């Protein structure tokens, strides 16, 4: 059932629009308001999927109403109804975020198409929000240890700023979770988070991957291609394992950070970018600087905020929560009932040396769920979790 509000001061036009929509689709629930003020009160106190709004109205005109609605419920698509002399105002309304405008008297086909498109857009917005919540949950930081709570506090403080963040810690500790949380809690959350694993890209291709290239820049460059920095414009770029980046690429990243400008490989034209950079490494970058493998000026540009993610061995008290989280997630993925772990099994897992950190624990939990009994016992851990 789609809930539609018609705000129009001319009763005859209200009735016509309401009749057209009600007869077109019996799933449309249509309500009416006679002016902008009463329309605003209805929007404030109800959930509508679409608003059709006249521009010229007493008390509060359509443009004023549009601006107020965008402040409280920006997800509602608003279609403006414009008289012959209102076209300039209708275009202004589009700039302010209106979905579309319809001229008076409304063309039936145009009206119905616009309504259908606006409702489809609203549904996509809702689905996207649900998907983002699911994605965000996938990158939730599990744990209540002092070390993890400290990181959560740091993220909450830093996320809303534009400060660059360098995340350090051993492999498998969840450094990418920090990057995702920083992005999701920032003002840039509606724009992309682009991840780049610097260690996985050959050194001769890293510059092209980050900054793009033009056709003919090198043998396999058969067409122009945008890089990761352009893809992350207005959003966040996560440079994972930045300690493995070549010195040549480091110099270009430094320029991008200093000037917010990048240049595609083989091009002369500069491209302006607005990107927040979060970097991560498992290396000691100060040692890399001493040995000439990492630029000190780049380090200081990246390390405005330092977040160190502890090894699992340094936060063993979080293992029960992590095991429970992974058990539920694996059961959901496999479509099975959640298997419980006995207290003795958990205690034994807390005594292990987790050199592979969270990643290793997740694999062990999955192995135990597959091979263990209906409840994972201490004996199951001894049999199947041994290294």
From TrEMBL:
Assigned GO CC terms: cytoplasm
Residues bearing the modification 4-aspartylphosphate: 54
Key words, A-Z: Activator, ATP-binding, Cytoplasm, DNA-binding, Nucleotide-binding, Phosphoprotein, Transcription, Transcription regulation, Two-component regulatory system
GO molecular function: ATP binding; DNA binding
Ranges for domain Sigma-54 factor interaction: 141-370
GO annotation terms (biological process): phosphorelay signal transduction system; regulation of DNA-templated transcription
CDD domains registered for this protein in UniProt: AAA (cd00009)
InterPro entries named among the record's database cross-references: AAA+_ATPase, AAA_lid_NorR, CheY-like_superfamily, P-loop_NTPase, Sig_transdc_resp-reg_receiver, Sigma_54_int, Sigma_54_int_dom_ATP-bd_2
Positions of the Response regulatory domain: 3-119
SMART domains associated with the record: AAA, REC
Protein name in UniProt: Fis family transcriptional regulator
């Amino acid at each position: 059932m789609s809930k539609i509000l018609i705000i129009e001061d001319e009763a005859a036009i209200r009735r016509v629009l309401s009749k057209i929509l009600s007869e077109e689709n019996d799933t449309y629930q249509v309500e009416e308001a006679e002016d902008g003020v009463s329309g605003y009160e209805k929007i404030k106190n109800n959930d509508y999927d679409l608003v059709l709004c006249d521009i010229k109205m007493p008390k509060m005109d359509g443009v004023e109403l549009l601006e107020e609605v965008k402040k409280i419920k920006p997800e509602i698509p608003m279609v403006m109804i414009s008289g012959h002399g209102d076209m300039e105002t209708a275009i202004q309304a589009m700039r302010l975020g209106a979905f579309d405008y319809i001229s008076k008297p409304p063309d039936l086909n145009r009206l119905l198409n616009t309504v259908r498109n606006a409702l489809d857009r609203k549904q996509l917005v809702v689905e996207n929000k649900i998907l983002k919540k699911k994605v965000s949950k996938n990158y939730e930081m599990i744990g209540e240890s002092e070390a993890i709570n400290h990181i959560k506090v740091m993220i909450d403080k830093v996320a809303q700023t534009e400060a660059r963040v360098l995340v350090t810690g051993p492999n498998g500790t969840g450094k990418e979770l920090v990057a995702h949380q920083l992005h999701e809690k920032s003002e840039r959350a509606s724009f992309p988070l682009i991840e780049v694993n610097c260690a996985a890209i050959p050194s001769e291709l890293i510059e092209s991957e980050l900054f793009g290239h033009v056709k003919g820049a090198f043998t396999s460059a058969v067409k122009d291609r945008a890089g990761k920095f352009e893809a992350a414009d207005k959003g966040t770029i996560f440079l994972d394992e930045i300690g493995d980046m070549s010195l040549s690429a480091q110099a270009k990243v430094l320029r991008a950070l200093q000037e917010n400008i990048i240049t595609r490989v083989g091009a002369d034209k500069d491209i302006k970018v607005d990107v927040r950079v979060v970097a991560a490494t498992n290396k000691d970058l100060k040692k890399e600087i001493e040995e000439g493998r990492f630029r000190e000026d780049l380090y200081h540009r990246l390390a405005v905020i330092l977040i160190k993610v502890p090894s699992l061995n340094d936060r063993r008290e979080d293992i029960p929560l992590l095991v429970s989280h992974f058990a539920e997630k694996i059961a959901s993925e496999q479509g099975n009932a959640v298997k419980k772990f006995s207290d003795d099994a958990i205690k034994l897992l807390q005594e292990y040396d987790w050199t592979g950190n969270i990643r290793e624990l997740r694999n062990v939990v999955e192995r135990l769920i597959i091979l263990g009994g209906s409840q994972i016992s201490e004996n199951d851990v001894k049999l199947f979790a041994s290294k």
